[in-house]
């Protein structure tokens, strides 16, 4: 009897949908080709309807594409949903089932990587627990959180000289400091393909709290200025020892404990990135929205933060009303989406750009790459597990680590840690 004879066709459908793929997308990624009699999608649909059995190699491809162990396809019913921690998002935007499925898969994937890293670090006698995890409580108040994160990152929020390089440099500085403190910071907003990209309306970031290997994941669909806000927001969750998914900042009234936690995290990020020293230019009560927009733009540029974040801070202070705030946010989002579309349209195969390995290094972060690099060459981690942790094919592990080694040596030569 064929090894695929006992598979459950309904699980094939479930696994594809949980991976955020349409029948057409999945069929083409599996390498199915259109023929005179059937399209690629129709061939996959036959498997899902139980009309035809996939071969074992095809089943193996399905497992890899859908990021599921082979045993899943033989189950009578889908496995229980993965533990993604708390869902701190507010239902202000309708999120599709597909987007939530992609998000759940992303969280599950990162959690699996975290467990592999934790196993390595547990056996490392030189690695110490990250003491700040779960070290704070909401009862301490916003200023206490800001002070703790300032000490953790060795960053004075009021020192504008640390922000002279712009929003991208600020994010790079804060991320490197968080990684030095023992927190793994990954930038990811899809499952490895732009077809599975999820917007910042679905999630801004998520935290996976752990005393040995805390992870923060930031949606790469956001601007660098927005990513700095999300990083501080998620660090606040880590300080409270919380794991969970966060959505866009919301200045509306809180309705439950989750809303209150999110409000604290947003306010900590707001006060860290835009301290009281930045609040010297208040708009008039009856100021026209164009005047308010220009004032916000000036403040954002001066402090290397997003305009949306300045608007959030002003809204929380009562400097602008709900309608003005909402109109500003809608405008900022529309402008950002238009900018991204234009940038994508302007990009051509001939235009070049950073290599695959440079992009992967930027997304994974030097902390994660550093642990894999050391563990692999100390024989504490296999190449197969390294590929899983890094989210790349086995053949890409060595080239990616060579890219990491090259930039690390360049940093040492330049006097950087």
From TrEMBL:
Limits of the IrrE N-terminal-like domain: 209-314
One Pfam entry name: Peptidase_M78
Record flagged with keyword DNA-binding: yes
Keywords in alphabetical order: DNA-binding
Domain of life: Bacteria
UniProt-recorded Gene Ontology molecular function terms: DNA binding
Gene3D superfamilies cross-referenced by the UniProt entry: 1.10.10.2910
InterPro entries documented for this protein: Cro/C1-type_HTH, IrrE_HExxH, Rad_response_metalloprotease
Keyword DNA-binding included in the entry's annotation: yes
The protein, known as: DNA-binding protein
Protein species of origin: Pannonibacter phragmitetus
């Amino acid at each position: 009897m064929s090894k695929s004879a006992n598979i459950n066709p309904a699980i094939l459908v479930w696994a594809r949908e949980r991976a955020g793929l349409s029948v057409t997308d999945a069929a083409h990624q599996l390498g199915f080709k259109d023929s005179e009699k059937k399209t690629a999608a129709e061939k996959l649909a036959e498997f899902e309807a139980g009309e035809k059995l996939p071969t074992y190699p095809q089943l193996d491809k399905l497992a890899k594409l859908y990021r599921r162990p082979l045993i899943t396809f033989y189950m009578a019913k889908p496995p229980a949903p993965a533990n993604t921690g708390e869902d701190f998002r507010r239902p202000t935007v309708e999120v599709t089932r597909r987007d939530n499925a992609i998000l759940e898969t992303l969280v599950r994937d990162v959690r699996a990587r975290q467990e592999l890293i934790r196993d390595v670090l547990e056996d490392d006698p030189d690695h110490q627990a990250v003491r700040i995890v779960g070290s704070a409580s909401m009862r301490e108040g916003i200023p206490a959180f800001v002070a703790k994160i300032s000490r953790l990152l060795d960053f004075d929020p009021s020192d504008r000289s640390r922000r002279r390089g712009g929003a991208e440099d600020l994010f790079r500085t804060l991320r490197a400091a968080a990684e030095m403190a023992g927190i793994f910071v990954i930038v990811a907003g899809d499952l490895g393909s732009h077809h599975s990209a999820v917007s910042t309306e679905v999630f801004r970031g998520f935290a996976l709290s752990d005393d040995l290997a805390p992870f923060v994941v930031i949606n790469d669909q956001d601007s660098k200025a927005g990513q700095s806000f999300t990083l501080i927001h998620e660090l606040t969750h880590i300080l409270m020892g919380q794991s969970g998914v966060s959505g866009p900042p919301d200045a509306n009234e809180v309705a439950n404990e989750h809303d209150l936690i999110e409000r604290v995290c947003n306010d900590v990020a707001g006060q860290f990135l835009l301290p009281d020293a930045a609040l010297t230019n208040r708009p008039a009560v009856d100021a026209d929205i164009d005047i308010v927009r220009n004032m916000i733009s000036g403040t954002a540029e001066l402090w290397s933060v997003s305009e949306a974040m300045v608007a959030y801070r002003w809204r929380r202070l009562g400097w602008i009303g709900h309608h003005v705030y909402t109109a500003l946010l809608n405008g900022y989002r529309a402008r950002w989406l238009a900018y991204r579309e234009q940038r994508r349209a302007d990009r051509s195969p001939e235009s070049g750009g950073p290599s695959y390995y440079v992009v992967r290094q930027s997304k994974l972060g030097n902390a994660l790459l550093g642990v894999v690099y050391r563990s692999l060459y100390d024989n504490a981690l296999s190449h197969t597990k390294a590929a899983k942790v890094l989210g790349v094919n086995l053949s890409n592990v060595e080239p990616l680590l060579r890219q990491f080694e090259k930039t690390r040596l360049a940093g040492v030569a330049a006097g950087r840690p």
